[in-house]
Amino acid sequence: MSTDAIPESPAPPGDLAGIVDLERYPLTAPDGAGWRRAVQAVRTELADGGCSVLPGFVPAGPREALRTECAGLAGQAHYDEERVNVYNTAPDPRLPDDHPARRTTLRGNAFVPRDRIPAGALIQRLYTGPPFQRFLAACLGLPAVHPLADPLAGLCVNIVVPGKEHPWHFDTNEFAVSMITQEPEAGGVFEYCPDIRSPGAENFADVAAVLDGAGGDRVRRLRLHPGDLHLFHGRYAMHRVVTVRGTRARHSAIFAYSDRPGVVGTRERTRQLIGRLTPAHRSDDGAGRSDALLD
Asked: What class is the 33-274 domain?
């Protein structure tokens, strides 16, 4: 393992040295020109295409430590194939057969939940780090970002083994922040449909068209690489990871924040993705939501 591996005791959450390329992305210097340039670049990409990638956010040395860390956690994932819809909601027989919520795909990915990730892990240090959160808030044009109150879904490692995929879905939180930690040999491409729905409109017809393979130019494709930070509006952009090929699994860290405190996943979504519930998952009302969209 690299000398940049997980420390035996947690480092201060604001200490990003040895994790982030602070010369290229000066997160600890929010008043500097470099910080402002990085923020503006992300804002421009998000405005233009609903997605932004910060290449080399984690440089080569700690990148290998990150890969080793997440690969070591893969055995803690909840592996349970299940047919799911794009909203991760329970089947509703009252809906017509051609409704997107009635159409299911076999979900083959697995999640390592936050309570299985050591406090001293590099991804925990990033997730809880005030400089990281401040930078993300600025990039997203928000006063602040708040870690999900969900004790399982706030921070996860997503595992997609060869032959499996993470099918089309929407996220609980308004925006998504992720990072590939291990790239597959082939496949595993990220596909997304920016702003296919909005806080006030589900746009079921457009969602159904993508599910039918008729999304056309609406579907965009992106090959992500280890150490690249990836931001997009995951609650409004339907997205998926296509089938992984070869012998190596695709691993990614999912950093889940919201623009308001108190957001918790629904019981059904949590059951599907994690396989268990906690006292925080008291109902299926989508605690903390700012809209009435299907989850």
From this structure: mainly beta
